[in-house]
Amino acid sequence: MIAEIWVEKYRPKTLDEVVGQEEVVQRLKSYVERKNIPHLLFAGPPGTGKTASAIALARDLFGENWRDNFVEMNASDERGIDVVRHKIKEFARTAPIGDAPFKIIFLDEADALTADAQAALRRTMEMYSKTCRFILSCNYVSRIIEPIQSRCAVFKFRPIPAEAMKKRLLEICKKENIKIADDGLEALIYIANGDFRKAINALQGAAAFGEVIDAEAIYQITATARPEELAKLLNLALSGNFMEAREMLDKMMIEYGMSGEDIVSQLFREIVSSTMDEKMKVLLIDKLGEIDFRLTEGAHERIQLDAYLAYLSTLSKKKV
């Protein structure tokens, strides 16, 4: 038996199988009932079902022969104006196969297209609307030019809710004969942070560790620190124990293999969800944003993270 990637194995085959996007699914189903769709724009974070919804829509519309009238292209591979003038235009201008009323071009990561390519795409969408419909997918709708946005029905995909993700993950565990502990399931929800693709990949990776998947396996396979470890790091620094906090930071980066950006991202989540005073949260997040900017600009991650811990230690001294 050939081993399968679970993300592909459990990709929704119909719109009914799409998880956590009930409002989007209901609107798309109404298009399927009418056998007609406008140009669509799917926007939202990664791993929330944009590509899955586009393929499921094509399956529901065209049935078994959906591949004959559906083409998927990734705009981040070829992002210049030539791909619009040649590849996309050539497919769009040909008539649909069989009794299908139109073809569908699914353009993934459309926000990677250059401004010139998007301008050329705008005209192509108008000229061949009788024979072809476009579904554009992007993470940031603000990077799509206004003329294209106005020609599309915009669908905003939200991060997958924890309950919906939990229910589907348990279904996958049952089908794969995997035992997962409660803390393992909670750890999966935490590391995924609304990204279903990340959760399924982590589950498949952890399944190779042992018979029962627990939180330790999840954090280890994803190179993620536990939330309680981040909370302890913050408390140590805020209580003035700079060297002890620094040693703990060393341990996280070496044992888990975490980068500076990973630490900053997790610290942000921990500060927001903590029970500390709101004014203190404002101070910590303001300084953390500055550290994040410096790391983005290429600053040394160890020096910047140590500087942040030092700043937290000075706050405790000011209190004293």
Structure notes:
This protein is an alpha/beta fold and 320 residues long. It folds into 3 domains: 6-156, P-loop containing nucleotide triphosphate hydrolases (Rossmann fold); 162-221, Orthogonal Bundle (Helicase, Ruva Protein, domain 3), CATH 1.10.8; 227-319, Zinc Finger, Delta Prime, domain 3, CATH 1.20.272. The chain is globular and about 70 Å long. The protein has a 5-stranded parallel β-sheet. A two-stranded parallel ribbon has the order 6-7. It starts with 5 loop residues before the first helix and ends with a helix. The protein has helices at 6-9, 22-34, 50-62, 81-93, 115-127, 146-151, 162-175, 182-192, 196-206, 215-221, 227-238, 242-255, 260-273, 278-296, 301-319; strands spanning 39-43, 70-74, 103-108, 132-138, 152-156, 179-180, 212-213. Helix 4 runs parallel beside helix 5, helix 8 packs across helix 9 and helix 8 runs parallel beside helix 10.
Give a concise summary.
It is built from 15 helices and seven strands.
Question: What characteristics describe this protein?
Answer:
Zinc Finger, Delta Prime, domain 3; Rossmann fold; two-stranded parallel sheet; globular; alpha/beta; 320 residues; Helicase, Ruva Protein, domain 3; five-stranded parallel sheet; 3 domains
Q: How would you characterize the largest beta sheet?
A: 5 strands, parallel
What fraction of the residues are assigned to beta strands by DSSP?
Answer: 5-15%
Distance between the termini: 65 Å
How many strand elements? 7
Helix tally equals 15
Structural class determined from secondary elements: alpha/beta
CATH level 1 class label of the largest domain: Alpha Beta
The name CATH uses for the topology of the largest domain is: Rossmann fold
Radius of gyration: 24 Å
Domain count, please report it: 3
Helix content: 55-70%
CATH homologous superfamily of the largest domain?
A: P-loop containing nucleotide triphosphate hydrolases
- CATH architecture verdict of the largest domain: 3-Layer(aba) Sandwich
Whole-number average pLDDT?
A: 88
Q: Indicate the overall shape.
A: globular
User: What is the spatial order of strands in the main beta sheet?
Assistant: 2-3-4-1-5
